[in-house]
Known about the structure:
By secondary structure, the protein is α+β, with helices and mostly antiparallel strands.
Amino acid sequence: MKGQLAVGIVCLILGLVLSIQFKNVQGSDLDWGGSTQQFQQISRDLKKEKEDKQQLLGQVDLLQRRMKEIEDKESQEDGQLKNLSAELEKYKMISGVRAVKGKGVVVVVDDPPIGPDHPSDLSVIMINYDLLLSLMNKLNDAGAEAISINDQRIVSNTEIHLAGNNVNINSVPTSPPFIIKAIGNPDTLEAALNIRFGIIWQMKDTYNLQVSIKKGEEVMIPRYDKITKFIYAKTLEDLNQQ
C-alpha cells in the first residue's frame, strides 16, 4: 500500500510537469513575432521540450506499469492471506477454541423419576457416566462436527469422570440433567441414536433413564476455554531441527 501511494504521488508530479511544459510550448508557438535567430532558438527549445516530454511520458508509463505490478502483487498477497485465515479458522473450529452454531440435535438425559426403586439421593446416570461416553462416541460415529455436554465443549483431551457427588467434564463439576448438544446432519444424528438396541434404547430399557432427542436448526455450542499445554508432544519439524 505504501509503495502504491508513493508511485501515485510521483505520477501526479510528473503529470503536473507535463502540463506546465505543454503550456510553455503552446505559448512559444502562438506568440511568435521576432527575428529569424529568435525563431531558430525557439525551434530548438521546442524540439528539446518535445524530447523532454517524451522522456517524461516514458517515465510515467514505466511508473504506471510498476504501480500495476504492485497492485497485482498486493491482490495476490491479500488472496493468500484470506485463504490462510480461512484455513486457520477451520482448524480453530475443529480444535474447539471457537464457539460454533448450526443444525444438529439436543439430547437431554436425566435420572429416572423418584420412586421406591430410585431414591432422590441416588443418581443412576452419574454412577453410570460411561453411558455419556458411549453416547458421545455414537454421535462422533454419525458425523457430529462439534459436541458439548452441559455447555462443556468436548475436545480431544476432555476428561469425563465421577468426582464425589458430581461428574467432572473438563475439570468442571456437572450434574443431571445432562444436556448433550451436537452439530451435524440432524436426521443422521437422530437415526444413529435411535437405532434399535442402541445407546438410547439401553439408557431407557436397562437404566430407566429419561431421555429426549430434539432436532434443531441453530444449535449453539460454546468454545473450549482452557489452555492446552504441550510438554511432551512436538511437531516433526521441531524434531528434525534438533
